[in-house]
Amino acid sequence: MKFTADAAGLGNALNMVTRAIPARAAKPIMESVLVEAQDGQVVLTCTDGTFSIQSSIEARVEEDGRMALQGRFFADMIRKLPGGDVSVSTKGSELAQIRCGGVRTSMMGKDPMEFPEMAEVTDGQKVTLPQNLLRNMISRVSFAVAMDETRQILTGILMEIKNGEMRLVALDGFRLALQSAGVETTLPADGSLTRRICPGKVMSELSRILTDEESACEISFDEKHMAIRFGGTLLSTVLMSGQYIDYERIMPKSFATSIKLDRSQLSSAIDFASLYAREAKNNLVKMRIEDNMIGISSNAELGDFHQDLSIFQDGPGLQIAFNAKYVTDVLRAVSDDEICMRFNANIHPCIIGPVEGEGYQYLILPVRVFE
Q1: Per CATH, which fold does 125-248 belong to?
Q2: What is the model's pTM?
């Protein structure tokens, strides 16, 4: 194998694919990046056995070939090169020589035949949407993915697709996050609902490598695997098996009280209240809704906080308390200037959503407080 490529481009591709290298590899070969040179391209692949990232870059390929190199070391080494063109060539199947400017270095490789094959999705079901839209959808629900491995199914993100709409849902037992958007689909002709559960960690990595561009991103899937293709990158993963919670059953259908208010003002008040909530060790903030005002308060041994905000109120007043972090996470995920909060009672969930439409819905369970 022998090729020449731009050092910066090679480094960027390596930084991307090495995200799939596991912290503790089940097999030594999974610490490697598979380097393949052919047809004017260099294709780089890393995997942990269930999750893979592959990226291709243009190169001048003088001799086709493939080799497995120590992934993170190779990425660090390329990053330290002076820039410009880098030439990579192999002698036999175990030694790679790298040249860039005045730098000459080498590193041992491994047999590429040991490297696992990347799973292929052959079902033909596809969803197409802009990269930036998918990135935003993932980042706005991933904070609600469960961290507790004992509830394995909730460590995933539910993807629902039907009739040109895609929903992403995450919940951890205390809050729920839902994002929906219109997409182009190639799905069963009967229009039936397609549901897949994607590992939350994989989706979080995907949101980090997607760009802020409107260029198309294609998601294809079958019963066991999902592949996402964008630009010169292909990400694939094994889907989670099991039955996801029927989230629609826990979403209230009607509300006694609704309020509209300025998101940034509420966010600022919650942030301030959180200073005292953390000192009190319970991280609790209280809300009192009455007479088109909402009072945000918290207290601790060293003092207390209270701030009133103007709102538009529809329905009776109430008092309710929440874990401050749960409210803060939602407000950071929302970009609207104005939001709507809906309530039934101080022991029932609150729903935060847009003033118009249903592009996102966030459910937060309250904390019961005995005055």
Answers
A1: DNA Polymerase III; Chain A, domain 2 (3.10.150)
A2: 0.91
